Structures are given as C-alpha cells and as structure tokens.
Amino acid sequence: MAREDRPRRHASYGAFAGPLKVERTEDDWVHVWSDGIRFEGACGPLNLGELLEAFRDFVDNAVPVTD
Questions:
Q1: Sign, CA torsion 59/63/66/67
Q2: b/e map of 29-55 (b: 16 or more CB within 10 Å)?
Q3: Residue 3 and residue 55: Cα distance in Å, rounded?
C-alpha cells in the first residue's frame, strides 16, 4: 500500500516534558521542543540516539483524538 493511500491517524500528544536543551560540547548537544502536536529537534553529529529517545518519549504519551 502506497504511503498516500494509508489511513491517517490523528493524535494529540498533550504535555511534553520539554523543551530539552543539553549542551555538553560543540559537537555533543541535543535540543528538542514541542507545541504539544509537533515534535522538533536538532542535535550534534553523534547524538541522534538521544534525539530519537526523546521522540519516543513524546510519542509514548500520545492520546488518540476522536472525531
């Protein structure tokens, strides 16, 4: 099934424990923020794992929205 043919799911993510701003060195940093619906983040070249962990935490708090 093509991506555009898949049913879309809507969720409200509610409170996010962020924004998170960790700056250890010039290349070792993670910034994540959210408006409760959209997750955004940026990180140093070796910190993708930390950013994805924050995203997982964000998604784990999702609450389905009923129409």
A1: negative
A2: bbbbebeeeebebebbeebeebbeebe
A3: 21
In order along its 67 residues, the chain shows pLDDT tens digits of: 454 554 444 444 445 555 889 999 999 999 999 887 888 999 999 999 999 998 998 888 877 766 6
Task: Identify which of 10, 62, 67, 8 has the alpha carbon closest to the alpha carbon of residue 36.
Answer: 62
CA proximity to 15, closest of 42, 41, 35, 40: 35
Return the pLDDT at 11: 44
Kindly state the helix (H) or strand (E) to which residue 19 belongs, with its residue range. Answer: none
